[in-house]
Design brief:
The chain is α+β, with helices and mostly antiparallel strands. The protein contains eleven helices and ten strands. Strand 6 and strand 7 form a beta hairpin. Helix 7 runs parallel beside helix 9, helix 9 crosses helix 10 and helix 9 runs antiparallel to helix 11. It is globular and about 75 Å long.
Length: about 400
């Protein structure tokens, strides 16, 4: 990995050496070179064993405060850790949504009892969460959700429908937004609930209906809640106060990878170069121009990541100057274009799939990246954010007039 111009402190350099030495001594050969699959896989057992090793050594939930089982790592230290896992070519596993979305919300808004009850099972892997936010008529306008929560004794009873529930196939918990006060203003009267998929060993009124993507895999689901019950003690932040809790979750959703995502992109670039060489196309001037463009984009992403690390090292938050929006635009549009280039270079082979719709690496990447400029905030919305909130430009005129 190319050395960065960041001036690290002695403690940060010591931390890098600690992570590097630990990986050299403890990362088993069977996980080196593994890529975390999308969806269920025959790699699950090996990855679960590796996750248990990481948990025992304190390399999961590392950004959480130490009093809650984390290591209290700063943004720079998390970036260093990610770099070293990339250097060692081993999966940098996390506890998924539990670690990145639910945990920060509990830490910020939960009671002491809730922190004691819900945080340790995330670290151990006992609780695996999926998300119940979006609804068929409440995606971008999340506050218009219609799922209801009604108090019944010591329980909250949930009824409604959610959609785009990822990770449903392995989850045993779902964090849900529901409306508990229909008379309150739009962004009030909403509660944030941790809902178990089973209670007392029996189904808890939660039904998943898988949604098959164009890759042929069902990684999302529609979720139907029919009298699903959660103890009132599972409401984070208190009844009717869920919107501010949800903002903590949504604020965590886009963080984390911008400083080191170039590692995976560079690996993918060299995979494409190997494919080009194998097909005898490396001398084609047009092909070389496309590869040069791709490498330039990866370097741009790398340098933007270094700028973010420099901001964090200087005491910044890493969220200034539209970093989230510009990063999303940059990497999503790059990945879409790279896979289009790959498919062009594969030629007629790109149109041939295996038995049972068995896609090769580049075919799957091409199909998956079609949505990258849409989810997490469309590229158009991100450009408006940069234009209006960062550059101070006027808003686009409304259709049929001005605003």
């Amino acid at each position: 990995m190319t050395p960065s111009p960041i001036e690290y402190t002695a403690a940060q350099r010591e931390f890098r050496a600690e992570v590097r030495d630990w990986l050299a001594a403890n990362a088993p050969a069977e996980v080196r070179g593994l890529r975390v699959p999308r969806g269920p896989s025959d790699l699950d057992e090996r990855l679960a064993a590796w996750a248990a090793t990481l948990a025992e050594a304190g390399y999961l939930c590392v950004a959480w405060p130490t009093e809650y089982g984390g290591r209290g790592l700063t943004g720079v230290e998390v970036s260093i850790m990610n770099e070293e896992f990339g250097r060692a070519d081993v999966p940098r596993l996390t506890r998924g949504m539990g670690e990145s979305l639910v945990g920060p919300a509990i830490i910020a808004h939960g009671t002491d009892e809730q922190k004691r009850r819900f945080l340790p099972p995330i670290i151990s892997g006992e609780h695996d969460y999926c998300q119940g936010f979006s609804e068929p008529d409440a995606g971008s306008d999340l506050a218009s959700l219609r799922t209801t929560g009604v108090v019944d004794g010591d329980d909250l009873v949930l009824t409604g429908q959610k959609v785009w529930t990822s990770g449903f196939w392995k989850a045993n918990m779902i964090f849900v937004l529901c409306r508990t006060n229909p008379d309150a203003p739009k962004h009030h009267g909403i509660s944030y609930v941790l809902l178990p998929l089973e209670r007392d060993g029996r189904p808890n009124g939660v039904e998943f209906r898988p949604i098959t993507r164009i890759t042929g895999k069902a990684l999302f689901a529609e979720t139907f809640l029919t009298g699903a019950r959660a103890p009132l003690d599972n409401v984070i932040g208190g009844l009717d106060n869920g919107w501010r809790v949800a903002m903590t979750t949504l604020g965590s959703e886009r963080g984390g990878s911008a400083t080191t995502q170039h590692v995976a992109f560079l690996r993918q670039f060299w995979q494409l170069v190997d494919e080009v060489r194998a097909r005898g196309l490396i001398g084609d001037v047009r092909v070389r121009e496309q590869l040069a463009w791709a490498y330039t984009q990866v370097e741009t992403i790398r340098m933007a990541g270094l700028a973010l690390v420099a901001d964090l090292a200087g005491g910044g938050t890493g969220r200034g100057l539209g970093n989230g929006s510009t990063s999303k635009i940059r990497w999503s549009e790059y990945q879409r274009r790279l896979t289009e280039i790959a498919m062009d270079l594969l030629g007629p082979d790109a149109l041939v799939v295996g038995d049972g719709y068995d896609l090769d690496h580049w075919q799957e990447e091409f199909l998956v990246t079609r949505s990258h400029t849409i989810w997490g905030g469309t590229a158009e919305v991100q450009r408006n954010i940069v234009a209006e909130r960062v550059l101070g430009l006027p808003k686009d005129p409304a259709p049929g007039g001005t605003r």
